[in-house]
Amino acid sequence: xxxxxxIKNRRAIRNYADRPIEKExxxxxxxxxxxxxxxxxxxxxxxxxxxxxxMKRYEEMATEYLQQRFPTKPHLVESSLKVVTxxxxxxxxxxxxxPDKPDDSEDNMFxxxxxxxxxxxxxxxxxxGFVWRTRGVGLVHDERMxxxxxxxxxxxxxxxxxxxxxxxxxxxxxxxxxxxxxxxxWL
Length: 187
Ligand SMILES: Cc1cc2nc3c(=O)[nH]c(=O)nc-3n(C[C@H](O)[C@H](O)[C@H](O)COP(=O)(O)O)c2cc1C
What we know:
Helix content is 44%, strand content 16%.
């Protein structure tokens, strides 16, 4: 597969088989991430890998969050929780915030986004399903996540990545894209 084909074929995969992921594969994803472009080689990312017992604790945090958010909708809490309980590995990715340097901090976030995209493409090559979550149980905008991963104050959570072998029979159709023609101004 060429790089262009890989970019075009990448999909958000949200349903996983009940199968663990080999540690070597997780390490490959983390290794690939560190090759992303980044300003002045600050390498601003940090990765928090959640699996096994830590995933159980994540489930507890997600339950508390969902029950607070949907106090009168237990079915919604239950169905939303499935996202966590059926995911073998999650990786929370943070980016370094530099005090009094908002531009550099922003560039760090851009670099970290590049790192996540690299991981996403690599996951595809390794046969893994992958989705970057920010909303809902991704808990990116919730203070609980900082406490859960134990990240220092100068780290901002950029994404929670959910990874697993894709569930068979749940092929994800291509997403429609607006042509670059409509998104481009030639000056
Ligand atoms: C910054 C970012 C945040 C996202 N947050 C979520 C999310 O919270 N939940 C989710 O299911 N998918 C999330 N996604 C995945 C997108 O929904 C997905 O990429 C989009 O639907 C297009 O599908 P495709 O990636 O298969 O082309 C996120 C993607 C990005 C880049």
